[in-house]
Amino acid sequence: MLVIFKINIFVLLVSMGLCLSCEQSTSGKRLPDDLRIAYNVLVDAEKDNYDIFTMKCDGSYKTNITNHPDVAWTYLATGDRIFFISDRDTAYRHYFLYDMGSDGRGITSIYPFRLADSWMGTRKLGTELIVKPHPSVDTALHIIHVDGTLIKKLGIAGMYLSDPSFSPDGAKIAFVGKNKRSKREEGYKEAIYISDDDGSNLVKVSKYPESDTTAEWYAYKAGPPRWHPTEDFVSYQSKRNGKYSLYAAMTNGSREWKLTDLEQQEGWHDWSPNGRWLAIELFDADQTQFDIGLYDWETKELRVLTDSTYQYQQAPVFVK
Q1: Residue 208 — very low, low, confident or very high, per pLDDT cuts 50/70/90?
Q2: Mean local confidence (pLDDT), 110-120
Q3: 8 Å CB contact between 206 and 249
Q4: Are 236 and 206 in contact (CB under 8 A)?
Q5: pTM for this structure?
Q6: What number of other Cβ atoms are within 10 A of residue 126's Cβ?
Q7: Burial letters for 293-305: b for 16+ Cβ neighbours within 10 Å, e otherwise?
Q8: What sign results for the dihedral spanned by CA atoms 61, 67, 72, 77?
Q9: Closest to 74 in 3D by CA, of 48, 29, 38
Q10: Which residues lie closer than 8 Å to 99 by C-beta, 6 or more apart?
Q11: What is the mean pLDDT of residues 118-125?
């Protein structure tokens, strides 16, 4: 009996251990272990020094991977490469394009022309990018090879374009289209548009409510669009009813809706490659503290990953 009792206890302990292991494994799988989040941090306000940080999707292992006295902002990552603009080799806030590994090594200058402060997109396994040059260089968007070769330009008559992003198959481009160059100009309007990569088949997919007067002149009414990797819509930030939230629009323009309903203000964001996870820039109404959150598209759960160590933590993108 003693032997049997010991065996039963052993079996029970093993079973409990297996169950705990299963729970931990299931819980662990809820966060993508193969991804990191890269984001921009103001590390020194007096010197206007921005660095790029990375962290695991549970908020651990926060690492400054640029650690350089420049303005460095990332708006794009693909695979294990991070693309960013920086003024490290030029005059103050004269941005050029660079890329680096997810650990900050192997920094390479890509394109010899000055860029605007704008989001960008990639296709063909990261070998082609679409970027916005500085207005002193060109008013059209540039599609370039990562070796710095200009492939072609995308311009639409009567419209100023910014914040381009390729569709998952690379055939289409979503961007912010504006009727005037600056928000300071009277009558300025912006919206999300989608076109083929040559500018044809242009569709306006977002429409700001004319009755809504809660957005300040400088506020986003249609922020940088991000393609959902597996579903047929783009997401973007917009200040409506006095609050920044994420909205979505079908790529054919047939429907537009509020995507999320979080307590915090919601801004720049990025989808994980499988479309389940949404990394979001979160901030208070007075914009005194910016954090990065991870939103589960399936369960609608939000996890805030950063704290108040830094005031400005923005523009998250997923990287391998």
Answers
A1: very high
A2: 97
A3: yes
A4: yes
A5: 0.90
A6: 16
A7: bbbebeeeebeeb
A8: negative
A9: 38
A10: 81, 82, 83, 84, 106, 107, 108, 110, 146
A11: 98
Scanning the structure block, which residue is given the tokens 């055939």? 171
Q: Which residues contact 122 (CB under 8 A, 6 or more apart)?
A: 76, 78, 83, 128, 129, 130, 166
Q: What is the pairing mode between strands 160-166 and 256-258? A: unpaired
* Helix, strand, or coil (residue 15): helix
What is the reported pLDDT for 29?
52
User: Which has the closest alpha carbon to 266: 302, 234, 299?
Assistant: 302
Total length of the chain? 320
- Rounded to whole angstroms, the Cα distance separating 37 from 299 reads 20
CA gap 246, 275 in Å, rounded = 15
How confident is the model at residue 32, as a pLDDT? 87
Determine phi and psi for 237, rounding to 5 degrees.
Answer: -90, 150
Q: Does 8 have pLDDT greater than 50?
A: no
Q: Residue 282's pLDDT band (boundaries 50, 70, 90)?
A: very high
Partnered with residue 245 across adjacent β-strands are 238
Mean pLDDT of the 11-35 span:
51
Distances, alpha carbon 289 to alpha carbons 200, 264, 306, in Å: 41, 11, 11
Strands 290-296 and 277-283, sheet pairing: antiparallel
- Residue 295 structure tokens: 């939103």
